[in-house]
């Protein structure tokens, strides 16, 4: 539990003891006269009422302890309602190096922190689950959050969704990082996207502006996740260059898509474009098209044991045409297909910080109330 909570509880208890202490000493005379007198008179002054009050106080104390224990020291999992999980069409994951029991009381704070980073009008951020990993309490916690429409009945509009997609991909590529309340949460790591309605396309290392000038020439499917592809990206590019038999003045650029919007689940579609310092003449294009389609056994040069089998090789209609062209003819200039420019981030901010959870308040109030009832 957080330091704040401990302090809060401590103060409340002191407060309560002060109040209760004076209250009971003032009224105890009425309940059982002589209770507070010397030991030698204890036996004959002892009344049933005294004993009864003592017994009740003890049982309240004990039940209080047992009520607190399972809730605040053993709670290592949190799961949102299924209804909320199902309506979160955008879901992402990160890891916090704190035990879940220390994080669960601050879920609203965490939602607020994430919202300040990626939130947009008419959306809200909900923590969907917090599961502690590993055996001991010193392990990390896996956090899954979702972005939901607000109100839930109106789907997130396409413009917001595209801004959200950009900022979530930036987080995944560590081009930006989640800034959380460090004193409570520490640093977030291992950011992954689990689900994004409409899919995600990640452009590793290479500049996004490249895709404004060049058309995708071919694509193929690999049974890997986006994260696995990025882990092995330099090997992937070297092998692909080799497989395409590119010369030193040619290069290949790729972008990687998962149609379900996950960076952890296979498969991926790799969309690729070849560029040359010297320009690609129709003859070279035809040669490339032949290399790409002609040697499935060579797996496009990719190591089968790392990347698996290349499937579904598909040429763009432009490259496909060069394959069937009998006489070399001037190729149409590739035109930009998609605009990848980044829309500006929304300045929208959450209106008010949410107060931290006060899990002990209700217990303290219950004890106070019982205490008063007993003294009446
Ligand atoms: C985000 O964090 C990672 C790992 O700590 C770091 O390498 C990267 O430079 C950070 N990105 C930004 C934009 O600060
Ligand atoms: C969190 O990250 C910041 C900057 O990367 C670093 O200065 C700080 O020590 C980190 N805190 C923890 C608890 O890892
Ligand atoms: C893809 O790989 C996963 C394991 O990563 C495997 O379970 C699945 O059967 C594979 N799918 C295909 C179509 O090869
Ligand atoms: C490829 O990535 C996986 C993890 O996804 C890693 O275990 C493996 O070592 C990488 N292979 C190479 C050749 O980098
Ligand atoms: C690879 O390209 C070189 C020229 O760059 C060419 O001589 C060679 O025949 C090509 N090999 C294949 C298998 O296409
Ligand atoms: C393919 O990758 C595996 C595992 O990384 C490695 O042992 C093997 O030598 C590689 N094969 C080639 C042809 O590079
Ligand atoms: C080329 O186009 C034809 C139809 O125009 C199609 O059937 C074929 O699959 C395409 N080839 C590739 C490799 O994309
Ligand atoms: C792969 O290429 C084919 C042909 O150009 C296209 O129809 C298909 O949409 C592409 N797939 C992806 C995921 O880009």
Automatic annotation (TrEMBL):
<protein>
    <submittedName>
        <fullName>Uncharacterized protein</fullName>
    </submittedName>
</protein>
